[in-house]
Write a structure and sequence with these properties.
13 helices, single chain
């Protein structure tokens, strides 16, 4: 037990964070078990929830031993959103997000000696593999394509907004007429969306082709999978028509090799195009209806709000603080716009002199 007050405070803060993570996991897996229609898959979610419940009780006990008041924790907004989506659209809809979060969390306990001693870090890795197997066993469900589509969507919307805001502010700084700014902004929208889509298509196509020809060889890591986890994986595959021996073989195969899926290039390209165009539309939209300084200020205000929302919304998938991510996104976008506005002002002045 820490004796220094500062160390004690840091330890309590860490334990509270661990507790909240387990509270979120218990709530999410219990909700998925209720919404899941396949009994075998629902049972997998129940087992995961039971393990997370044990982890939750462990951290509550540790907090009590340190003399800290154990709060009545409830699931955070991110988990409540995923639960709502699972209830509205089914567990399969949120499964790629859950898998991504589990993959991101596998190293959370690695540096905590108590958690390692309790096998928490190994359990997190096991959970990540199980959820990945559940997703891979679903018809038309693949973590790779959906994750890549999400990446393309986020990058497309953010790049479209940030780049076109910078472009609009640059020509605004040069004191061009509102009609000229509108034409410039729309040209930037179309050109940027096309370039983004082409780049995404080439990126995904190259990755897939490299994989198919064996040029891009991924290092394979052995997976230390327990017998219980193998049984759960076998149950998952057996629900989709595999015989017992086939399901067991698939589970063993997952234990020995990692599986990587690649997104379809055209889906990624179309996603990039549409999201870039959507993001790029916000900075230029006020110039359809307004002019002069009013249009410039409206463009900044609308773009600032959307920049913050993009940064905050991404935390549903990253797990970071929505306030921190939103403000960071806002400041970066406004900084770029400020630079281009200043450069446009000086360049416009130099050309007009």
């Amino acid at each position: 037990m820490p004796t220094d007050p500062r160390d004690l405070k840091d330890t309590i803060r860490q334990y509270l964070g661990n507790l909240q993570r387990e509270v979120d996991s218990v709530a999410l897996y219990r909700a998925l078990s209720v919404e899941e229609r396949k009994p075998e898959i629902a049972e997998v979610y129940k087992r995961l929830a039971a393990i997370e419940q044990a982890h939750k009780e462990f951290w509550k006990q540790r907090l009590s031993e340190l003399g800290s008041q154990v709060p009545e924790s409830s699931a955070g907004w991110r988990t409540r959103t995923l639960i709502w989506l699972a209830h509205r659209y089914g567990p399969d809809f949120v499964l790629p997000i859950v898998s991504t979060q589990e993959q991101a969390d596998v190293g959370h306990y690695d540096a905590q000696s108590e958690a390692v001693a309790g096998g928490f870090n190994a359990a997190e890795r096991s959970h990540a593999r199980i959820i990945r197997a559940v997703a891979a066993s679903m018809p038309n469900m693949s973590i790779g394509p959906l994750a890549n589509a999400l990446r393309a969507a986020v990058l497309g919307a953010n790049d479209g907004l940030a780049s076109n805001l910078s472009l609009v502010m640059g020509v605004s700084g040069a004191h061009l007429a509102s009609r000229a700014i509108l034409v410039t902004g729309l040209s930037g929208l179309v050109a940027g969306a096309c370039a983004m889509a082409m780049g995404e298509w080439l990126s995904v196509s190259t990755s897939r082709e490299s994989h198919e020809t064996g040029v891009d060889v991924e290092a394979r890591e052995p997976a230390d999978i327990s017998e219980e986890e193998r049984e759960q994986l076998a149950n998952i595959y057996s629900t989709h028509g595999f015989r017992t021996d086939e399901a067991r073989a698939l589970a063993d195969r997952l234990a020995n090799a990692r599986r990587e899926d690649f997104a379809y290039a055209w889906n990624a390209a179309m996603s990039s195009f549409l999201l870039f165009a959507t993001g790029a539309l916000f900075p230029v939209a006020p110039f359809f209806f307004l002019s002069g300084t009013t249009a410039v200020l409206a463009s900044i205000l609308i773009s600032s709000a959307v920049l913050f929302l993009i940064g905050a919304g991404v935390t549903l998938f990253t797990g970071r603080s929505f306030l921190f991510s939103g403000i960071r996104q806002l400041l970066v976008g406004l900084a770029a716009a400020g630079v281009t506005y200043t450069l446009g002002h000086f360049i416009g002045g130099a050309l007009s002199s």
